[in-house]
Amino acid sequence: MRELSWAVRLLLVNQFGVNTGFYLLVPYLAGHLTGDLGLSAAVTGVILGVRNLSQQGLFLIGGSAADRLGARGVIITGCALRTAGFALFAFGTTVPLLLAAAVLSGLAGALFNPAVRAYVAVEAPDKARAFALFNVFAQAGALCGPLLGGVLLLVDFRAAAITAAAIFMVLTVAQALVLPARAVPPSGSSVLGDWRRCLADRRFLAFTLALSGMFALQNQLYLVLPLAAEQATGTAGSVALLFLVSTVASLLFQMRITRWLEAATSRDRAMALGLAVMGAGFLAPALLPGIAPVLVAALALAVGVMMAQPFVYERIGHFGGESLAGTYFGVFYLVSGVVAAASTALIGWAGAAGAAVCAAVGLVCAAAVLVQERRAAVTA
Question: Residue limits of the Major facilitator superfamily (MFS) profile domain (predicted)?
Answer without folding.
Answer: 7-377
